Amino acid sequence: MRVRRLTRSTTLSMAVGQYNDLRAALAEEEDARAERNRARHPVDLRWEALADPNSKGSWLHGHHA
Fold it and tell me: For the chain, what is the radius of gyration of the CA atoms?
């Protein structure tokens, strides 16, 4: 019984340690993804405008005219 408690305690301690090690890296990853999405948003808007077949100024409309 005592060995089982020690094993559980050790396992829990290791899991918490791994979480604490990863937490900072995960926060950095989240910030990097948010920054990428902010930078990519205007590009996506322009790409959609270029591909809109109903827009007379679109790239797609000009090549299908």
Answer: 26
